[in-house]
Design goal:
Length: 109
Amino acid sequence: MEQHAVTKITRSKSFTGERAWAALDIASMNGITTRLHWTDQPYKWHINDGQEVFVVLDGCVQMRYREAGVEKAVQLEVGDIFYADVGTEHVAHPQGVARILVIESEGSV
């Protein structure tokens, strides 16, 4: 019997976590995860061991990052995409409630 793919629709605006940075797993493909995060609190400074794509779906996020030891910041609005290459130190600070799609290597921090 042939197995068919499962289609999944996610209404991101209806997802609310019980805690900051709660995540809803959307997909895992070849070691890459796609997760929807809900948050109203900053994350922590971290460095990913792989690449990361960060898409603001709802709300605003101030993304802080370091380049050559200098801290920089950019305001991300709905639809904006932040790409962090391997070794990019960064931290997300939502401005109120935000929903963020994160695509990264499985097991990333």
